[in-house]
Amino acid sequence: MTFISISLSKKKKKMAAATPLCGHSSPETHLQAPKSTSIKTLAESPGLTYIPPNYTYTTNPHESAASEPEDSIPIIDFSSLTSSDPDQRSQVIQDLGKACQEWGFFMVVNHGVPESLMKEMVDACNGFFDLREEEKREFEGKHVLDPIRCGTSFNSKADKVFFWRDFLKVFVHPQFHSPNKPTGFSELLREYSKQTRKVAMELLRGISESLGLEECYIEKAMDLESGLQIFTGNLYPPCPQPELAMGLPPHSDHGLLTMLIQNEIGGLQLHHNGKWVNVKALPNSFLVNTADHLEILSNGRYKSVVHRAVVNNKATRISIATACGPSLDTIVSPAPELAEDGEGHHPPAYIPMKYRDYLELQQSNQLDRKSCLDRVRLQIA
Ligand SMILES: O=C(O)CCC(=O)C(=O)O
Ligand SMILES: [Fe+2]
Fold it and tell me: Is there an atom of ligand 1 within 6 Å of 323 CB?
């Protein structure tokens, strides 16, 4: 794991061993958290009732609390996308386009990925986070482009405030990687990744068409045969002061599409029409969001949605995000077909950048708001 350093003097370390973290202690006592730990270990400290000060996340005081969405979040029936009935298919392509344009987010139902596989994958992730710290340390990874990397917060080397989250990130395509523990994890991950990829590729074909491009446009332009697919398991243990901590701060994702599943515990919020809205997942659905490279490719027609993960004080939340992106060597720029309309009204609004460089930039910095996309967005009057 990437460990949080809360440095302690020798004397304080002795005290820490003897004094459980408890509600009667001053916030200062929280510096007695173990020297290096995952959030899971910290959250399981007996009697923990405060969060250590370096986990205190300040939200914008002008921002109102998250609410339920006024309109229902779009639902995409995947079976219509693969239907042989052309009317059904063209209707769902229209729905997809509308969902991407108005929300940057939709729930996919009837996708054909067995519910049992989704559940087993979530359980297997739990099993991974349950490994001993020394076992997880084997998979710590050093560089953001290492194919297997687990850690805590987002980028604990750069984060000024730590997030209440542990993670496991694995590159599963074009080459398949996997931690070799716990037993059975690798086999499940292979199957889960294969099946989610099939869904993602079909969605991207539909999205391509919804942009008025040929069905395989995105596939070809983004070299998806060698496209990077990253599996991220997120663990958010119960937090004694959930209103002060953050699981993952507002951000947009780097790839083209992200497909998310979770255990029965909610926590995902989207920024929609200037407000935070809670996402209530339909059972057995994939929560899909458009990501930065779809915004770039579509020349801003489809916005990469800003989202965050909040924590709670009752139950552990696990989410699994599957990010499907271009191949690492693809230089992404707006599709020329979408970058002009003959009268020059839609000039390219993003600077071309190699996906590898973009990914490195996003992952090596602090995660906050849309800073990474802002680096390639041109200010067009
Ligand atoms: O846990 C969640 O709901 C969100 C996870 C996420 O945004 C991510 O992994 O990029
Ligand atoms: Fe995300």
Answer: no
Which ligand 1 atom sits closest to the C-alpha of 253?
Answer: 10
Q: Is 328 a residue whose pLDDT tops 60?
A: yes
Under DSSP, the state recorded for 306 is P
CA distances from 123 to 17, 132, 161 (A): 32, 16, 29
- Tens digits of residue pLDDT in 117-175: 999 999 999 999 999 999 999 999 888 899 999 999 887 777 778 999 999 999 999 99
User: Dmax over Cα atoms in the chain, in whole Å?
Assistant: 74
Output the CA 252–ligand 1 centroid distance in Å: 10
Question: Hey, which of 122, 153, 234 would you mutate to test ligand 1's pocket, going by the most ligand atoms within 8 Å of its Cβ?
Answer: 234
Query: What distance in Å separates the CA atoms of residue 305 and residue 270, rounded to the nearest whole number?
Result: 7
Q: Edge-to-edge strand order for the sheet containing 275-278?
A: 248-251, 307-309, 268-272, 275-278
Q: How many angstroms separate the CA atoms of 212 and 33, rounded?
A: 55
Report CA 154 to chain centroid distance, whole Å. 11
Residues 6+ apart with CB under 8 A from 297: 218, 221, 222, 256, 332, 334, 335, 338
